[in-house]
């Protein structure tokens, strides 16, 4: 994804690039805000450069609120977002500073949203009872992409990619209550699966640096 340099003419060139997906920094999508991208050139003597690539991302937030004698005396919100991808990329056309390429990624993502609420005295029949809302979504997709990369000074490259994808998504929801005697009651739960196909014109925008 980053730039396939003129490295194919120089087998002694560095074969590893690492970087960040800058798209997540300003596009409010479902991906982690920060992730590490890497690409390794696997055929330095080949006519057209080919690469193994991977991306790992993780983001977590935890917000708590303690109050007195209100509807809720305690509120806690936890969110976790895990992303892992592995893929293959091959150049179509390469110049000393630009590259057009195609490839495919297998993408796995897990989103979890937990909410803990403790009722206060204003809700007499529920005072002191804690409830838990647990929402989890796990998805696996195959994305076929095309991209363009431009190399700049200092071994830095910027790459733009668009993709078509097929995704299987599994969602689960569970609502539970913890009573004053410590007993737990699963009040509601459900799960679902679905397949989605679509296009993502802004699949990744990656800023990378070649490791010497």
UniProtKB/TrEMBL annotation:
It comes from the Bacteria. This is DUF481 domain-containing protein. It comes from Algoriphagus lacus.
